[in-house]
Amino acid sequence: MNFIQTRGIDPSKPKTVTFSQAILDPIASYGGLYVPEKLPELGQAFLDKHLNSSYKVLAKDMLDAFDIDIESEVIDEALNLYDKFDDAANPVPVVKVKENLYVSELYHGPTRAFKDMALQPFGIVLSSIAQKKNENYLILAATSGDTGPAALETFKNRANVRVACLYPDGGTSDVQRLQMVTEDAQNLKVIGINGVFDDAQSALKRLLASSEFKSALSEKNTKLSAANSVNFGRIIFQIIYHIHSYLELVRQNAIEMGEKVYLNVPSGNFGNALGGYYAWKMGLPVEKIIISSNENNVLTRLIKTGKYDLNGCDVVNTTSPAMDILKSSNVERILFDMFGEVRTKELMQDLEEKNVYELTADELATLRTCFDADFCNGDEGKAYIKDTFENDNYLMDPHTATCFKSYETCSDPKIKSIIYSTAEWTKFSPVIANALTGEVDAEDIIALESISNTAKLAIPAMVKELFTKEIVQKTIINKEDIEKEILDFI
Ligand SMILES: N[C@@H](CCOP(=O)(O)O)C(=O)O
Question: What pLDDT digit, counting tens, does each position of 6-42 carry?
Fold first, then answer.
């Protein structure tokens, strides 16, 4: 399968690229993104065939359907990393929480967030290509808290790759920060910036598109790629768990094969929701995708009104920091899929130049046939955490909690919903302890122990040990100094 570009083709670039080209150099013409030329049609036969397949067998067959230029042995090695998850036989448990409401737990990997679902295998794939080509890569990662730890974990000590990970200092939870600043490996650099996630992601996109930066790297015998969902190498692995979660509901006799369900996705950069949209287009029976946000509710406004408007908008720090994002990368891939390259280029240009774009009434109607959305503020989220724990005996993190509001406001309760849980409770313990008991803990470790006692849940060793590890990554800089800091590292 070849990959095409969301904003049309700059004549100096090839018309189409292979999968490995798209993941090694993920920014396309005019700052656009790569998308598959045509999605594979899996159809009912694929779902029937995999009703009783393991996650890895399902994943392998879905990746085969994309016909990507990665050797079968490399894909096998990459998928074997799911064996490290809590339950190798089922890395993504799907749990019934209420009548018609199921939670797909995507956080059972090494960094306790859904990013492991894609970044674990992606690390093997990218590093293998780099080794085979005998090239060195700098992998940029911009994070609001989950992508960073998962990218560092997957690339740690891997051959031919180095990682520069940018995070907003003060804009993540303490556990997320510790996961990054305690990572000790020669090939990893963690850089806190005085700014917000959007500053980190804008720098990443600018550097990925900068020929000057690329030639400065090439003097150091290094090429450039990225670990974020701008890279289709991330998205391809984020389609699989939507199909798996659906099949789990069939296996649990919660739905009949072919019955439509809602996919309810906490959303920041929109990679998770895009994976669900592609799965739907490939044949998954979906009623609608519900997009859940926090107070940074630009996606809700887009889907309700057709206007993506950043004027007068500043990112606010919330209790669900991984979604403290205003410039959401993957909406662009949806725009391309629905409205084509000319319109996508126009809309993205409006956003870059005027900080706003507006869909026509027809375009908004098209968008709304697939998506609905709502946002949930911190207090509402805490109320859902407490209520769901006390009444349904289910403990969830603040990102997952945002979905409980949109579940109520956007879905027909007679139709089953899958809510995607993107992070474990351990990553946001002060918010959760506060929701459960009203306590205000000065330190995460106290909140973790309190929740562990209340909910009778063990704190995983990899989280507990963060509090005694040495902090080795101490760099905090202004956003203007990012490029220099990275070049000094290489
Ligand atoms: N929410 C993310 C932000 C980056 O998203 P990505 O899917 O593009 O990697 C985070 O937690 O880092």
Answer: 999 999 889 999 999 999 999 999 999 999 999 999 9
Q: From the CA of 268, give the closest atom in ligand 1.
A: 1
pLDDT in tens, 292-351: 999 999 999 999 999 999 999 999 999 999 999 999 999 999 999 999 999 999 999 999
Question: Region 160-174: what's the mean pLDDT?
Answer: 97
Check pocket membership of 381 for ligand 1, CB cut-off 6 A: no
Query: Is ligand 1 within 6 A of the CB of residue 231?
Result: no
Total number of domains in the chain: 1
Residue 12: what pLDDT?
86
Instruction: Report which of 141, 91, 130, 95 is spatially closest to residue 114, judged by C-alpha positions.
Output: 91
From residue 170, how far is each of 80, 143, 221, 283, 474 by CA, in Å?
35, 12, 34, 42, 13
Query: Is 73 contained in some domain?
Result: no
For the domain that residue 435 is a member of, what is the CATH number? 3.40.50.1100
Q: Indicate whether 295 belongs to any domain.
A: yes
Nearest C-alpha to atom 5 of ligand 1 is from which residue?
269
Q: Where are the beta strands (DSSP E) in 385-434?
A: 417-421
State the distance from the centre of ligand 1 to the C-alpha of 12, rounded, in angstroms: 30
CA of 147 to the centre of ligand 1 (A): 5
- In this structure, which residue's CA is closest to atom 1 in ligand 1? 322
Whether 5 is in a domain gets the answer no
Is residue 299 within 8 Å of residue 289, measured between CB atoms?
A: no
Q: Which domain holds residue 391?
A: 80-113+233-467
473 lines ligand 1 (CB under 6 A): no
The Cα-based distances of 80 to 40, 90, 169, 479 in angstroms read 24, 12, 34, 38
Is 203 domain-assigned?
no
Q: Is 269 in the pocket of ligand 1 (CB under 6 A)?
A: yes
